[in-house]
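Annotated sample (chain length 148).
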Amino acid sequence: MVGGALVFNYVVTIGTIPETLRAVLQGRALTALQFLLLVNVIVLVSGCVPEGMAVLLIIVPVFIPAAQAPGIDLVHFGVMVVVSILPGLVTPPYGILLFNMTNITGTPMKYLIRDGLPFLGWMVLCLALITCFPDLVLWLPRLAGYGG
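Output written by the structure step:
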């Protein structure tokens, strides 16, 4: 799957899709928060189907030029995208972590899903906080000397 994602990424880059997306989004005059919320929705939905690494390899290179246009810090953007993939790893239909936990514990998947719903809510809440308040992510890198 990662190999296919890399080939797709190469085709996307050759086709100048990231720059086209950047121009389209600039034409819409989205604020940084609106753009981040749009990316969150796209990643949350797409993270429910394929494996997380493939989502990272496909989506991030496409959205980086568009994220730079409204002045979004790329460290913040990267952390936000990774955190937005996590709920997809524990939700059906693919939910790779659900399959792993079923194999490890021997617990039927329906019980794992039921017991994991409160944690899914906390994941989405943390994602909302990370999206709306970039300083929650950037305070430690700035403390270490990051200039972003």
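Annotation: The chain has a mean pLDDT of 83.
Annotation: The chain has eight helices and no strands.
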